[in-house]
Specification:
Helices cover 64% and strands 8% of the residues. The chain is built from 17 helices and eight strands. The strands form two sheets. The chain has a five-stranded mixed sheet. Strands 1-3-8 form a three-stranded antiparallel sheet. A hairpin with a 6-residue loop joins strand 6 and strand 7. Helix 1 packs antiparallel against helix 10, helix 5 crosses helix 7 and helix 12 packs antiparallel against helix 13. The longest helix is centred in the middle third of the chain and has 62 residues. The chain starts with a helix and ends with a helix.
Length: 567
């Protein structure tokens, strides 16, 4: 408890300070004349406090993430130094230009911010995938930048013509760095890592966006003007400081590592960059249709061409990424299938050599046992080949023979056929008197595959659950193993995919069991899924057969006998 008291006091102090700075932002928004009085002190205090929190919170992290937050904290200190310098020069009565030598301090801070963002860690993987995500960010940032330039800064070029060259260079540096920073925020937010959609990155990006808007407005007002005449948009700058303070407080608590399913991306994350591109093209089309052939229309046209080229390049990268993934999957398939077939082939060849040796003296029982093993391994190989043939068909004709089946008897026969009752065994939790309408051989194969999967990758304890939800039949297989990592929750249903065990040759498996389960259940009009087991704590693979559950007739002798048995 004592160790937490300083952190609690710091959190209260930072929250109170953030409230004060936010109040200053509201006051300057409604009373702009108070901006010069409240703006500099609020920004100075906000940046300094956020810098302290960033450097303090960075100590809780390791590697690149620690370096990243340290760089951003240092950038906040440098930004605070710039605010202090501008304030002191103004107090001393000097005429401060809107863009001058003091801006070198702020540009240095912006560049450190950018370096800190790009230093944030991301997952390894294909380089082409990382480059594709960068292109996505570029498309969104460039589109927003061009639209903002045309709609809100139409007369900047006129001001540039009458300004000094060094003012033009310094003033142009701000929007350029802002665009690169927004690209970095998009990339860090979208790329697959523990920071994907992280609230710290999102809030920090919000602060940077507010700062970027303030920079653009200040650029519009400030070319060729003094700092006082340019009238910085203090509410936005102060709001950015509030966002940085919030991120600093969030850094005090290191979040648990998170994973995301490899193919699950929110729709807004995919639409956002290209929504901005559509806005850019729509703006150009509107001005072109209205016959506004001015310089802004030319800028929109050039921006649209750049975005289209980036999109084409992005599609080329996507094609290359797909090709590399296919090659990777092909290599994994060959490795997996060869490993899966090598074991039974080795056993069959060895036993056949023994059986065919004329000098080998063997009693009939031992010979029959070896023949049985060879037959078992041959049947196993035949089943793998049959499964592969079935999976290779685009629309396999399974020839389902649907009939009414006692679910309890079906589950028990599937468990018995696998001989998985050694050790803790397989527990059964079966609702009595349930009849299902389906192909019993195919659904038994589904249960066998799920139980085999649990035996290979799960823990020693397993549980089969059969229950009815209205007219839906639900079958579940639980285990007490490590479960499936989040990133593989969707891909495990693909052919030849073994999830976290894809490179583990020590665990047998070809990666076709769950794919067959998905195919067979889909042929029955059902659905499959995965979740963490609330019963055993490991994995839970479930099957839902929609509209295929019935209640058994109590006057049927076989069902009466099953109903009297304990589940």
């Amino acid at each position: 408890m004592r160790a937490n008291r300083p952190t609690s006091r710091l959190r209260l102090w930072a929250a109170g300070l953030a409230g004060v700075v936010a109040t200053a932002a509201l006051v300057t928004a409604f009373r702009p004349e108070l901006g010069p009085v409240l703006g500099h002190p609020s920004m100075l205090v906000g940046y300094l406090a956020a810098g302290v929190l960033f450097l303090r919170g960075a100590r809780r992290y390791d590697g690149r993430e620690r370096l990243s937050w340290q760089l951003i904290g240092l950038a906040l200190f440098i930004g605070a130094a710039g605010v202090l310098a501008v304030g002191l020069v103004a107090v001393l009565g000097y005429d401060v230009p809107a863009f001058g030598p003091l801006d070198i301090i702020f540009i240095t801070a912006y560049l450190l911010n950018l370096a800190g963002l790009w230093a944030l860690p991301h997952l390894g993987g294909l380089r082409v995938r990382r480059l594709r995500i960068i292109i996505d960010g570029l498309v969104g940032a460039i589109s927003m930048g061009v639209v903002a330039w045309v709609w809100f800064l139409s007369d900047i070029l006129e001001r540039f013509r009458s300004a000094e060259p060094w003012q033009v260079i310094i003033g142009s540096a701000y929007p350029l760095i802002d665009v690169l920073t927004l690209v970095a925020v998009m990339v860090v937010t979208l790329r697959r890592s523990s920071l994907r959609f992280d609230p710290r990155v999102l809030v920090f990006g919000f602060g940077l966006a507010a700062q970027a808007v303030a920079d653009l407005i200040y650029l519009h007002r400030g070319i060729g003007q003094s700092f006082e005449d340019a009238a910085p948009v203090y509410p936005l700058f102060i709001l950015a400081a509030v966002a940085f303070l919030i991120v600093g407080m969030l850094l005090e608590h290191r979040p648990p590592p998170r994973e995301y399913a490899e193919r699950r991306t929110p729709w807004w994350a995919m639409v956002a960059p290209y929504g901005a591109a559509l806005a850019l093209i729509a703006t150009f089309g509107w001005r072109f249709a209205a016959e506004q052939y001015d310089f802004q229309t030319i800028e929109l046209f050039v921006g649209s061409i750049i975005v289209v080229v980036l999109i084409i390049f992005r599609q080329a990268l996507a094609i290359r990424e797909t090709r590399e993934l296919v090659e990777h999957q092909r290599t994994a398939l060959v490795s997996s299938i060869s490993h899966e077939l090598r074991t039974p082939l080795t056993a069959m060849v060895g036993f056949l050599e023994i059986l065919s040796d004329p000098d080998q003296q063997m009693d009939p029982d031992a010979r029959q046992e070896l023949i049985g093993i060879v037959e078992q391994q041959a049947n196993y190989m035949a089943r793998i080949v049959a499964d592969l043939v079935m999976l290779n068909r685009a629309d396999p004709d399974l020839g389902l023979e649907e009939t009414e089946v006692d679910v309890k008897e079906l589950v028990q026969s599937a468990v018995t056929s696998l001989d998985l009752d050694s050790g803790p065994g397989v527990g059964l939790d079966l609702e009595p008197d349930i009849v299902g309408v389906f192909d019993p051989n195919r659904i038994r194969q589904v249960l066998v595959n799920l139980l085999t999967n649990a035996a290979r990758y799960g823990g020693p304890e397993r549980l089969v659950v059969a229950r009815r939800r209205q007219d839906d039949l639900i079958l579940e297989v639980h285990d007490n193993g490590p479960g499936v990592p989040k990133r593989y929750e969707l891909s495990i249903w693909d052919r030849f995919e073994r999830g976290a065990h894809r490179y583990n040759a020590g665990i047998p498996g070809s990666g076709i069991g769950l794919a067959l389960v998905a195919m067979l259940v889909s042929a029955h009009g059902g659905t499959v899924g995965y979740r963490r087991s609330e019963r055993l704590g490991g994995a839970c693979f479930y099957v839902v057969l929609h509209g295929r559950a019935r209640t058994a007739e109590v006057d049927r002798p076989s069902l009466e006998r099953v109903g009297r048995e304990d589940p």
